[in-house]
């Protein structure tokens, strides 16, 4: 008897509790919904601002280490600071084309979510009208379906179009800015020539070409996609789940979220470090490509040596390492794919089905109409919402990965921008020779000299220092006036070419005063002259364009006259005219290249010509006429040559001894030649004895 009354009492209690719950359910619902939205926002915030795990931090490091530099790359304040600097370049103002594209992109994303919500409801209605046998309703719904398809397909196509356009616009802005600094124009004066300084005076960036092409492109693509990958899923999760909570009750939703989050944590723990693998793959592929490009670059040398077997072995080694790595990654992807599909598709699918079934099996207070049609409609709509929502949750979950990748590319792009800015300020980071920073050497390295514009060349106590801090000459003083041709002699490595690098504004001046004309008043003819991409005409007038040539009033006939000076006029006919484009580096012999460079000198007629073994490959009788013509045109020669036959064209000599000493004096070529002959005679006699 007492047992029955007890159970009746507890039944009563449960009923009372249920009634109290039903009465307060709207409040509970609101509480749970607010809690859910708060949870999604904090989870997203933690996802974005969380400190990465040590493993993920290492992935970032590897990405930055590709250039040999180890820098911490994380989604942190430094990242946001770097990103904001780059954002100011890619979106210069709110009225820019990029800002407009971004606004269009955002609007399209919101519009797409609205369409998805409508389609979920419509889907349910179609199935409900089918189950109820309402043919007219069914037909009307199908027409609605077809009508909504128009903006839906339109939106998706527009979305990818606008996103790609945005990525391209970012890339163009960034590339233009980088090229402006990298190939700084004349106006930059001594701050220019960043492309030279970055690879010769600094160690931070080993492959600027890859950064300017590949990394900027990857950065732009990631940046354009980040809104779609981050803000959009957060918005989707909130909207879809809000709608779902209206349909199935917030309780089911909270239960579902707990289950999804638990399994997601499991999946995250199982995820291999794919970021590191990608970086390693890129490094191995880069190495293989480098070995191949060396083979084509030095094909002639390798062919003469018969080095095919060695080269093949090297390439095969690189390839084997790449294949081994790729196979390892493929294996990991295989089992990860199984785990991912099992959890995301099947486990989450079953959770979803259970949640969708709640309104079917339980009469939820506040939800009415429980005929078969309504149940089916509710089920189909909820299922669709669930699928979209779980997809959005997945994307929020992985948004950290996207941000981490963006952080990686951001660090690469900002490393490029920072290094370029340092080059312009004369701040270089390079491994120095031992002892470079100590004592007097250190004092020289820490100080800076002055560069003043002048018609003459005048060095006053200027040290010659290599980029790695090796001091070739502690203090050099000499001067050259226009018309006083200077011969520079000295053993290998004494610093002859280094002197020219200072004159050309390539190397910094560490002390004293350098007075010299602007870098554009110098023209260099090295032993192996540079030939550009382009026509035969472009080779002779380089770096002028055809328009520059026209503006100077020079015609093709004048260019033939220039070529006659170096006995090369026949080349125009031989190669098929001025407009023929070839790989001139391969089409011309070493001597022809030097003659073209001399023709270039006669076309430009600069104030000073730097001749660094510039006649080594032309016949001796020609070198004399070329020198005479140059001096007759008023070009002052600064010559490095081992040929005594050239002495007579110079009036001063700078003799470096290779030990840090030098002599600068007037050159009496005849006397010097006589002395040289006397010395050779004596040496010959000594040998005979
Ligand atoms: N970009 C650079 N970075 C570091 N050191 C350099 C660089 N360029 C040249 N050097 C060093 O500067 C020193 C002088 O080189 P430089 O080319 O001036 O010699 P040189 O007198 O012209 O010799 P050579 O007759 O052999 O051409 C060499 O020891 C060389 O290794």
UniProtKB/TrEMBL annotation:
- What parts of the sequence cross the membrane? 27-48, 99-122, 142-162, 343-362
The answer to whether UniProt assigns keyword Transport to this entry is yes
Q: Which residues form a coiled coil?
A: none
Where does this polypeptide localize? Peroxisome membrane
Tell me where it mainly resides: membrane
The answer to whether the entry has keyword tRNA processing is no
Which BP terms does GO give this entry?
A: fatty acid beta-oxidation; long-chain fatty acid import into peroxisome; peroxisome organization; very long-chain fatty acid catabolic process
One Pfam family cited in the UniProt record for this chain? ABC_tran
Origin: domain of life: Eukaryota
Q: Which GO terms describe its cellular component?
A: peroxisomal membrane
Keywords, A to Z, come to: ATP-binding, Membrane, Nucleotide-binding, Transmembrane, Transmembrane helix, Transport
Residues of the ABC transporter domain: 457-684
Membrane topology for this entry? Multi-pass membrane protein
Q: What GO molecular function annotation could you give as one example from this UniProt entry?
A: ATP hydrolysis activity
**Protein family:** Belongs to the ABC transporter superfamily. ABCD family. Peroxisomal fatty acyl CoA transporter (TC 3.A.1.203) subfamily.
What name does UniProt use for this protein?
Answer: ABC transporter domain-containing protein
**What organism is the protein native to?**
Rhizopogon vinicolor AM-OR11-026
């Amino acid at each position: 008897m007492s047992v029955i009354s007890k159970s009746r009492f507890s039944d009563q209690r449960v009923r009372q509790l249920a009634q109290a719950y039903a009465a307060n359910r709207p409040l509970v619902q609101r509480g749970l919904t607010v809690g859910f939205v708060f949870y999604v926002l904090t989870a997203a915030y933690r996802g974005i601002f969380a400190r990465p795990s040590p493993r993920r931090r290492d992935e970032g490091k590897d990405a930055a280490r590709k250039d040999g530099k180890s820098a911490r790359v994380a989604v942190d304040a430094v990242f946001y600071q770097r990103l904001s600097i780059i954002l100011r370049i890619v979106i210069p103002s709110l009225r820019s084309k990029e800002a407009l594209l971004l606004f269009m992109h955002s609007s399209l994303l919101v519009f797409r979510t609205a369409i998805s919500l409508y389609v979920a409801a419509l889907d349910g209605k179609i199935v409900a009208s089918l189950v109820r046998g309402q043919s007219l309703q069914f037909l009307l719904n199908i027409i609605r379906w077809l009508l909504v398809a128009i903006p839906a397909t339109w939106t998706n196509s527009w979305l990818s179009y606008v996103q790609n356009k945005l990525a391209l616009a970012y890339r163009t802005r960034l590339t233009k800015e980088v090229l402006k600094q990298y190939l700084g124009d004349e106006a930059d004066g001594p701050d220019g020539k960043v492309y030279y300084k970055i690879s010769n005076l600094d160690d931070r960036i080993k492959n600027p070409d890859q950064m300017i092409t590949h990394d900027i492109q990857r950065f732009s693509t990631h940046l354009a996609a980040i809104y779609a990958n981050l803000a959009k899923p957060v918005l989707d999760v909130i909207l879809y789940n809000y709608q779902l909570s209206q349909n199935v009750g917030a309780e089911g939703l909270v239960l579902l979220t707990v289950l999804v989050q638990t399994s997601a944590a499991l999946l995250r723990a199982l995820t291999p470090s794919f970021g590191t693998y990608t970086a390693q793959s890129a490094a191995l592929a880069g190495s293989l490509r480098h070995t191949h490009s060396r083979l084509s670059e030095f094909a002639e040398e390798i062919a003469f040596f018969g080095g095919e077997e060695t080269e093949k072995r090297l390439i095969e080694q690189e390839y084997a390492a790449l294949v081994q790595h790729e196979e390892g990654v493929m294996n990991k992807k295989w089992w990860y794919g199984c785990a991912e599909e099992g959890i995301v598709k099947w486990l989450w699918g079953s959770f979803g089905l259970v949640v969708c079934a709640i309104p079917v099996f339980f009469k939820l207070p506040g939800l009415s109409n429980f005929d078969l049609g309504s149940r089916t409609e509710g089920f189909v709509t909820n299922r669709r919402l669930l699928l979209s929502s779980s997809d959005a949750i997945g994307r929020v979950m992985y948004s950290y990965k996207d941000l981490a990748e963006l952080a990686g590319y951001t660090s690469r792009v900002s490393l490029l921008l920072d290094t370029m800015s340092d080059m312009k300020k004369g701040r270089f980071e390079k491994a120095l020779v031992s002892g470079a920073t100590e004592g007097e050497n250190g004092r020289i390295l820490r100080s800076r000299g002055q560069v003043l514009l002048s018609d003459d060349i005048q060095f006053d106590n200027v040290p010659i220092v290599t980029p790695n801090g090796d001091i070739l000459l502690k203090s050099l003083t000499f001067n050259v006036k226009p018309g006083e041709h200077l011969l520079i002699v000295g053993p290998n490595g004494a610093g002859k070419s280094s002197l020219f690098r200072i004159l050309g504004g390539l190397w910094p001046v560490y002390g004293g005063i350098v007075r010299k004309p602007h870098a554009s008043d110098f023209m260099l003819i090295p032993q192996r002259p540079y030939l550009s991409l382009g026509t035969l005409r472009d080779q002779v007038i380089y770096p002028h364009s055809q328009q520059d040539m026209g503006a100077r009033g020079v015609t093709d006939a004048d260019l033939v006259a220039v070529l006659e000076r170096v006995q090369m006029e026949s080349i125009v006919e031989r190669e098929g005219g001025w407009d023929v484009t070839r790989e001139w580096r391969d089409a011309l012999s070493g001597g022809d290249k030097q003659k073209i460079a001399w023709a270039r000198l006669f076309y430009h007629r600069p104030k000073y010509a730097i001749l660094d073994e510039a006649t080594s490959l032309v016949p001796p009788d020609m070198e004399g006429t070329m020198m005479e013509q140059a001096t007759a045109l008023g070009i002052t020669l600064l010559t490095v040559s081992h040929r005594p036959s050239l002495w007579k064209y110079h009036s001063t000599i700078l003799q470096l001894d290779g030990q840090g000493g030098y002599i600068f004096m007037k050159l009496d070529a005849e006397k010097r030649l006589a002395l040289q002959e006397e010395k050779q005679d004596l040496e010959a006699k000594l040998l005979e004895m």
